[in-house]
Amino acid sequence: MDAALISTERLRVAFAVSNLGGRAKAWAYTREATTPDCEALLSEPAFRPANYEYRQRSRFLACKQGKRELHEYIQEMRVLAAYLVGNPLPEHIKVTVFMDGLKVGPSRTQLFRMHANTMEDAIQIALQEEYSHKQARTLMSMRQGHNSSTVAMQGAPAAGASTGPVPMEL
């Protein structure tokens, strides 16, 4: 199909967005969730690929953190949730999928302790826990570094003193 043959500007934009790929496609579909005009454009079934909703829902349900950083996983979950804007999943399912996808660590443990009502609540809890954990590690490493340098300074020989064994006089 040629874009020049499409009659309205609105449908041309929908056609252009439907032909995007990679990061541009992710950006456009994320933008779709926040801009009401774009949502209406892509709601045209003619511009969606076959099994679009099924594929997006499957990608959302199968999403895992893996070796990625927490913020990268969160970004992907938000993008995939934005794809489902036409027929969204219930919030409790989004929370469960988000928690299940997290790798084992302090964020996941804290989420199982607390109850999040929405995926955004779960994201905030995970981010706060990761921040707290990183702060605690930073403080511990600073204290250990300070203590080891203090011990090294106390055990250091005075200037001009020999550092080897001292012979005994008989």
TrEMBL record:
<feature type="domain" description="Retrotransposon gag">
    <location>
        <begin position="15"/>
        <end position="103"/>
    </location>
</feature>
<dbReference type="InterPro" id="IPR005162">
    <property type="entry name" value="Retrotrans_gag_dom"/>
</dbReference>
<protein>
    <submittedName>
        <fullName>Gag protein</fullName>
    </submittedName>
</protein>
<dbReference type="Pfam" id="PF03732">
    <property type="entry name" value="Retrotrans_gag"/>
</dbReference>
